[in-house]
UniProtKB/TrEMBL annotation, chain A:
Annotated family: Belongs to the small GTPase superfamily. Rab family.
Keyword terms of this UniProt record: GTP-binding, Nucleotide-binding
Function: Required for KRAS signaling regulation and modulation of cell proliferation. Regulator of KRAS prenylation, and probably prenylation of other small GTPases. Required for lymphocyte development and function. Not required for myeloid cell development.
Gene: RABL3
Protein's UniProt name: Rab-like protein 3
Subunit structure: Homodimer. Interacts with GPR89; the interaction stabilizes GPR89. Interacts with RAP1GDS1.
InterPro entries, sorted: P-loop_NTPase
SUPFAM superfamilies in the record: P-loop containing nucleoside triphosphate hydrolases
GO molecular function term, any single one: GTP binding
Organism, scientific name: Phyllostomus discolor (pale spear-nosed bat)
Superkingdom, taxonomy of origin: Eukaryota
UniProtKB/TrEMBL annotation, chain B:
Organism name: Phyllostomus discolor (pale spear-nosed bat)
Protein name as catalogued: Golgi pH regulator isoform X1
GO MF annotations, alphabetized: voltage-gated monoatomic anion channel activity
Enzymatic reactions: fluoride(in) = fluoride(out); bromide(in) = bromide(out); iodide(out) = iodide(in)
Protein localization: Membrane
Domain Golgi pH regulator conserved: 142-207
Length: 236, 455
C-alpha cells in the first residue's frame, strides 16, 4: 500500500483564506466542519490516478503540505517554514476572492517558496521582491485557487473573475475558483475537476517522466546557514 | 479674537494627529488585511487624535502657550468628547462587529448590539462600587462619575504594562540571559520535525488507501441515516472504519507533536538571531542599557513596596525635589522658576513620547499575534478602547510628575477625584505585575534550556 510513488505539493496562501478547508475537501471529499488555526504545517494525502482511463493508468500518492502563517511573519518563523519547502514538485497558491490583499501577497508567497527550492536554477536570492522573470523559467507547475466564491455578489462576479484571470496568467498557471464548503464545485466531470486532474498529472509528469537533466529530485538545498553561493557553483 | 486663533491652532493639531493615526492604522496595523469597514479606521484615528490632544494641552500648560481660558475650554471639550467616545461609541461598535460575525444573529444586528452595550454599561457602572473613588455629592451623570471609572480601568492597564515592561526590558536587552544555541541544535530539531511529518504522511497514506478500497467495495462510510441505518451500524461495523479511527487518533497525537516541534524550532531561530544581533554595536549598546534598566526596575519595585508599606504618597514631584537637592546640598544657585519649567517640560515630554510609542508598539505586536481576517475589526476597536483609557489615565498619573503650579489645571478639569487613591492603586498593581512577570520569566527561562541541551 505504501509502496506507491509519491509527489509533494505545497499549498500556500495567507491566513484565513481556506487552505485547510481546501486540503480537507481534496483529500477526504468532505467539507471541514471546524476549521481552526494551522500552526506549522499540516499534511494530507490524496490518491490520484495518473492518466485515468488510459492503458498507462497508474496510482500515485499526492502529499498536500498545508503551510500555515502569514507573509509578514518574523524571520525566525520564515526560516522554520523553509524546512518544508524542500524537494517540492508542485505549488497550489490559494487566495481569498473577497480579500484583494491575499491575492497580492501570492507573489511574496511564491517567491518565498521558489527561492528555497530544490531545483537549482542559479536564481539569485533577492530580498523577496517579485521578479517576473523567475516565473518564466520556473520548472514547478503552479495552480491558483480562489476561495469563498459564494460570498461574491453576482454583480461583482465578473470583474473579480477578470482580475483572477490576470493573476493566473502572471503565474503562468491554471486557475480554479470555488467555495470550500460546497463539494459540488469539484464534482467528478466538472471543468474544475478536470483542471485539477490535469494539474496533478502535470506534476507527476514533471517529477517522474521528464528527461530534463536539471531535475535532481529529493536533493535538499540548504541556503540558510551560509555557503549558498558556494553550493550554486556545483550545478552549472 | 485670541480665542479664535487658539482654537484654530488646536484644530490644526488635531487634524494632524488624526492623519498620523490614519497612516499608522493603514501601514502598520492593517498591513496584511483589506479595510472594508472604514468606520473602524475613522474611530481609531479619532480616538488617537483626541488622546494626543490631551497630552498636547499639558505641554502647552507647562510652556504657557495660548490663552489660559481658551486652554481650559479646550480641556473641558476634549475631555467630554473623549469620554463620549470611550463610553458610548467604541463599546457599541465593538458589540456591533461581534454580533455581525455570528451568522445566526445577522438579521437583528442592531438590537443585539444595543443589548450588548447595555450589559457593558451595567458592568461599567458596577465597577465604581468597591472603590472609594467618589464623594457622594456628585450627580449621576457628571463627568467625575465617568472619569473615575475610566480612570480605574486605565490605571490598572498602565500599571500592568509598566510592571511587565520594567521587568521584560532588561530581560530582552541583556545578553546574559541568552541561551546558547548552535546550528547543530537547530538541525537536530528540524530533523525530528521532518521525521514526525513523514510518520504522519505514512499513516495518512494508509488511511487514504483504506478509504479508497472501502469506497470501491461499496461500503459507504457516510453517517447512517434513519432508524435502520443506526441499528445496522451498531451490529455490523466494517473493520476498515475501526482501523481508521485508531489511526486517526495516532495521527492527532503526532500532529500535536509536530506543532510543538515547529514552535520550538522557531524559538531557536529567534534566539540565534538575537545572539548574532548582540554581537553588533547596537546589540552591545542595548546590552549596556539593559543593565541600567535593571537597576531602575529594582529601584521602582523597591519604591512601590515602600509606598504601600508605609502608606505614603509622594507630595512633591521629582523635578522640584531634584532642584531642592541641588540647591540645598550641592549649593548650586540657579533660577529655580525658569529651570523648573524647562526641566519639567522635558521630563513630561519624554514620559509622554515613550509611553505613546511603547503603547503603539505593544498594540501592534498584540494585534499581529491574535488577529485573523474575521476578528480584525473587533480587535482594532478593542485596542482603540484600551489606548483611549490608557491615555486618559496617563494624564491622571502624570499629575504627580509636575510641579504644583501646573497641577492646578488637571485638578480643575478633572474635578475632585481622589488622586491619592489612584496612585496607591497604581503602586499595588505595578508591584503585583512586576513580581508575577519575574516569576513567569524565571519559569519560562528555566524550562527551555533543558530541552535543547546537546548531549
Amino acid at each position: 500500500m505504501a509502496s506507491l510513488d509519491r509527489v509533494k505539493v505545497l499549498v500556500l496562501g495567507d491566513s484565513g483564506v481556506g487552505k485547510s478547508s481546501l486540503v480537507h475537501l481534496l483529500c477526504q471529499n468532505q467539507v471541514l466542519g471546524n476549521p481552526s488555526w494551522t500552526v506549522g504545517c499540516s499534511v494530507d494525502v490524496r490518491v490520484h490516478d495518473y492518466k485515468e482511463g488510459t492503458p498507462e493508468e497508474k496510482t500515485y500518492y499526492i502529499e498536500l503540505w498545508d503551510v500555515g502563517g502569514s507573509v509578514g511573519s518574523a524571520s525566525s518563523v520564515k526560516s522554520t517554514r523553509a524546512v518544508f519547502y524542500n524537494s517540492v514538485n508542485g505549488i497550489i497558491l490559494v487566495h481569498d476572492l473577497t480579500n484583494k490583499k491575499s491575492s497580492q501577497n501570492l507573489n511574496r508567497w511564491s517567491s518565498e517558496a521558489l527561492n528555497r527550492d530544490s531545483v537549482p536554477t542559479g536564481v539569485l536570492v533577492t530580498n523577496g521582491d517579485y521578479d517576473r522573470e523567475q516565473f518564466a523559467e520556473n520548472q514547478i507547475p503552479l495552480l491558483v485557487i480562489g476561495t469563498k466564491l459564494d460570498q461574491i455578489h453576482d454583480t461583482k462576479r465578473h470583474e473579480v473573475l477578470i482580475r483572477t484571470a490576470f493573476l493566473a496568467e502572471d503565474f503562468n498557471a491554471e486557475e480554479i475558483n470555488l467555495d470550500c464548503t460546497n463539494p459540488r464545485y469539484l464534482a467528478a466531470g466538472s471543468s474544475n475537476a478536470v483542471k485539477l486532474s490535469r494539474f496533478f498529472d502535470k506534476v507527476i509528469e514533471k517529477r517522474y517522466f521528464s528527461r530534463d537533466s536539471n531535475q535532481i529530485p529529493g536533493f535538499p538545498d540548504r541556503k540558510r546557514f551560509g555557503g549558498g553561493t558556494l553550493k550554486n557553483l556545483h550545478y552549472d | 479674537m485670541s480665542f479664535l486663533i487658539d482654537s484654530s491652532i488646536m484644530i490644526t493639531s488635531q487634524v494632524l494627529f488624526f492623519g498620523f493615526g490614519w497612516l499608522f492604522f493603514m501601514h502598520q496595523l492593517f498591513k496584511d488585511y483589506e479595510v472594508r469597514q472604514y468606520v473602524v479606521q475613522v474611530i481609531f484615528s479619532v480616538t488617537f487624535a483626541f488622546s494626543c490632544t490631551m497630552f498636547e494641552l499639558i505641554i502647552f500648560e507647562i510652556l504657557g502657550v495660548l490663552n489660559s481660558s481658551s486652554r481650559y475650554f479646550h480641556w473641558k471639550m476634549n475631555l467630554c468628547i473623549i469620554l463620549l467616545i470611550l463610553v458610548f461609541m467604541v463599546p457599541f461598535y465593538i458589540g456591533y462587529f461581534i454580533v455581525s460575525n455570528i451568522r445566526l444573529l445577522h438579521k437583528q444586528r442592531l438590537l443585539f448590539s444595543c443589548l450588548l452595550w447595555l450589559t457593558f454599561m451595567y458592568f461599567f457602572w458596577k465597577l465604581g462600587d468597591p472603590f472609594p473613588i467618589l464623594s457622594p455629592k456628585h450627580g449621576i451623570l457628571s463627568i467625575e462619575q465617568l472619569i473615575s471609572r475610566v480612570g480605574v480601568i486605565g490605571v490598572t492597564l498602565v500599571a500592568l504594562l509598566s510592571g511587565f515592561g520594567a521587568v521584560n526590558c532588561p530581560y530582552t536587552y541583556m545578553s546574559y540571559f541568552l541561551r546558547n544555541v548552535t546550528d547543530i541544535d537547530i538541525l537536530a530539531l528540524e530533523r525530528r520535525l521532518l521525521q514526525t511529518m513523514d510518520m504522519i504522511i505514512s499513516k495518512k497514506k494508509r488511511m487514504a488507501m483504506t478509504r479508497r478500497t472501502m469506497f470501491q467495495k461499496g461500503e459507504i462510510h457516510n453517517k447512517p441515516s434513519g432508524f435502520w441505518g443506526m441499528i445496522k451500524s451498531v451490529t455490523t461495523s466494517a473493520p476498515g472504519s475501526e482501523n481508521l479511527t485508531l489511526i486517526q487518533q495516532e495521527v492527532d497525537a503526532l500532529e500535536e507533536l509536530s506543532r510543538q516541534l515547529f514552535l520550538e524550532t522557531a524559538d531557536l531561530y529567534a534566539t540565534k538571531e538575537r545572539i548574532e544581533y548582540s554581537k553588533t554595536f547596537k546589540g552591545k549598546y542595548f546590552n549596556f542599557l539593559g543593565y541600567f534598566f535593571s537597576i531602575y526596575c529594582v529601584w521602582k519595585i523597591f519604591m512601590a513596596t515602600i509606598n504601600i508599606v508605609f502608606d505614603r504618597v509622594g507630595k512633591t514631584d521629582p523635578v522640584t525635589r531634584g532642584i531642592e537637592i541641588t540647591v540645598n546640598y550641592l549649593g548650586i544657585q540657579f533660577d529655580v522658576k525658569f529651570w523648573s519649567q524647562h526641566i519639567s517640560f522635558i521630563l513630561v515630554g519624554i514620559i509622554i513620547v515613550t509611553s505613546i510609542r511603547g503603547l503603539l508598539i505593544t498594540l501592534t505586536k498584540f494585534f499581529y499575534a491574535i488577529s485573523s481576517s474575521k476578528s480584525s475589526n473587533v480587535i482594532v476597536l478593542l485596542l482603540a478602547q484600551i489606548m483611549g483609557m490608557y491615555f486618559v489615565s496617563s494624564v491622571l498619573l502624570i499629575r504627580m510628575s509636575m510641579p504644583l503650579e501646573y497641577r492646578t489645571i488637571i485638578t480643575e478639569v478633572l474635578g475632585e477625584l481622589q488622586f491619592n487613591f489612584y496612585h496607591r492603586w497604581f503602586d499595588v498593581i505595578f508591584l503585583v505585575s512586576a513580581l508575577s512577570s519575574i516569576l513567569f520569566l524565571y519559569l519560562a527561562h528555566k524550562q527551555a534550556p533543558e530541552k535543547h541541551m546537546t548531549p
